[in-house]
Amino acid sequence: xxxxxxxxxxxxxxxxxxxxxxxxxxxxxxxxxxxxxxxxxxxxxxxxxxxxxxxxxxxxxxxxxxxxxxxxxxxxxxxxxxxxxxxxxxxxxxxxxxxxxxxxxxxxxxxxxxxxxxxxxxxxxxxxxxxxxxxxxxxxxxxxxxxxxxxxxxxxxxxxxxxxxxxxxxxxxxxxxxxxxxxxxxxxxxxxxxxxxxxxxxxxxxxxxxxxxxxxxxxxxxxxxxxxxxxxxxxxxxxxxxxxxxxxxxxxxxxxxxxxxxxxxxxxxxxxxxxxxxxxxxxxxxxxxxxxxxxxxxxxxxxxxxxxxxxxxxxxxxxxxxxxxxxxxxxxxxxxxxxxxxxxxxxxxxxxxxxxxxxxxxxxxxxxxxxxxxxxxxxxxxxxxxxxxxxxxxxxxxxxxxxxxxxxxxxxxxxxxxxxxxxxxxxxxxxxxxxxxxxxxxxxxxxxxxxxxxxxxxxxxxxxxxxxxxxxxxxxxxxxxxxxxxxxxxxxxxxxxxxxxxxxxxxxxxxxxxxxxxxxxxxxxxxxxxxxxxxxxxxxxxxxxxxxxxxxxxxxxxxxxxxxxxxxxxxxxxxxxxxxxxxxxxxxxxxxxxxxxxxxxxxxx
Length: 605
Fold this sequence. Notes:
By secondary structure, this protein is mainly α. Helices cover about 70% and strands about 0% of the residues.
């Protein structure tokens, strides 16, 4: 995909959110994620005499900023009722509605916006998909005929959509012909063969379906997606090659695909009755859904394409409401927007009999963690661990959740189990040793903690997270000072804008009595992590020892207002420092020549 992604990047700004005034709105300011542009500001509404729309517009804007897009759309619609000539607002409403899966409403407002001169091609896409869903095939094709000549449309999006409209009309040859343009781009050949295979499969053309599917199976350079694996193995089972389907579904163990999903699919294929197995592509609507999913998943790979991908995946699910893999992509997009509660709602729509179900529970638990609902994550993962005793990811994630809840002894047990289950040569094994080391350290078992952290350091090839944690732990204990300083300096050189590592470096200088250097790096750490209580406490101590006592007291007072996540901050001691200050510190013993040499490798700032 690399070459085509570059083309998508070039043309991305040309295909999204053009206003009726021929202005292009960049993805970063798309109406899916951002507030309404200044041209629709509240003051403009008032000055134009549209005061009745001010209240609902303002309520919509607040909902928009809070990423409550459904409510935002409802309020904007009310505002539009009071200001029906506001083409700018109208052109945004259908995009928001489409991003929430409210496609029939979106189509209605897209048509109205088109009549007011909107030049955004999404009007035609939304109307075409909605017409297809309502079996208005001629109307759907007419909408696509009005699309522009942008190569992303003519060479990628339009052929995929129109192909399935022709298929719905019963025209196999024209459906396949529409897809042929994809072959012109080498990196889209696998997509062409998958879509062509599905078209032939839909028309019960076994020979041509097999020919296209087997291109994907036999082409080593192409990537086999989970959905392609589902579709192709379903085809083999229905056509007397169940053994081949089972072998193919057991072939893949790439960590890009969820292990449980692959395992569940393989088990399902092994238990399948060929006579009772129904085709996945049982309707043109499902085929259209697959095409829209392919568009969404390709655009999702482009950082600036996430807004478009969001809309296309909602269109995909609209055409096939039972599309579990589509919901996985939608939830992934919501998570990238930090909309974790909304992602959980999407996951909850995936039934227990889906191959995706266990993977979804793992993803859902991760969303609970992002929402800091660790208890819910623990309950979910413990229930899942009883069902999936052999899943290392569940045990690893459960260890992480228990560690976050302060249950370090229990966490270690799950980390050890995860290690015993992890596939050989897994490049992420160091992460478990690192997390285990943290739990051992937090529970007071330093000997085991040190061993685990050293193992993590070796396996990770000196990852800066491990370097920082081990170095800082040695500093706290007043041991291996030269080695601790070397680890922290190396970590800082790898990640100079990580506030926690800058704090460790500043604290290392503090512990050896170089207070001016300590202040320098602790100030940087506090700028990077302004709400971190431990960093601000450290900075206050460094100010005091550097003779900046007024600033020290201010910093300590500031720290008292902060929540401590490190379990290191002693608030009673801070109050005492505010009253009485600090006594002179006794620097830790160290080899000055070694420290000076190591410090010389730090970047000049």
